[in-house]
Amino acid sequence: MTTMNALEPTHEQLERFIASGDGPVHMLNLLKFRDRAEYQDGRDADVSGRDAYFRYGGPMIELVRKAGGDMVFSAEVDGLLIGDVPEMWDMVAIVTYPSAAVMAEITQSPEFREIAPHRKAGLAGQLLIPCRMPAQAS
Q1: Strand, helix or coil at 66?
Q2: What is the pLDDT of residues 35-69, one digit of tens each?
Q3: Structural contact between residues 129 and 99, judged by C-beta atoms closer than 8 angstroms
Q4: Among 23, 29, 37, which Cα is nearest to 135's?
Q5: Which domains does the chain carry?
Q6: 61, 115 in Cβ contact below 8 A?
Q7: b vs e for 14-52, b when ≥16 Cβ sit within 10 Å of the residue's Cβ?
Q8: CB 92 within 8 A of CB 32
Q9: Which of 37, 63, 83, 84 has its CA 20 to 30 A from that of 44?
């Protein structure tokens, strides 16, 4: 199995996610921070990637909450118990969105575009894994 961190979904991944249906989606975030922030305009070269990302993270959770979602869990990664990956992530988070469409709307908002440079400056890459509760059998 190949693992590839990225910063943005491919067009196909985004279309598949938006078409995945209604209802809540729990987004598992596996985050890998840069050692030093890398802002495209060259600012804040002395800021850690983690600190740059947190300039994004707090305001992003506020956007999610305004849209009816919430941060469910967040913690630093402590290692692997089972398996092996070429490089370990630094942090995990689970964020619940009311639907895939709501998440997509948030990421198209002017407020998101304003904070997004901090995310890109701070992250070396991430995996975003949408999760849904299974339908209850009747």
Answers
A1: helix
A2: 999 999 988 889 999 999 999 999 999 999 999 99
A3: no
A4: 23
A5: 21-131 (3.30.70.100)
A6: no
A7: eeebeeeeeeebbbebbbbbbeebbeeeeebeebebbbb
A8: no
A9: 63
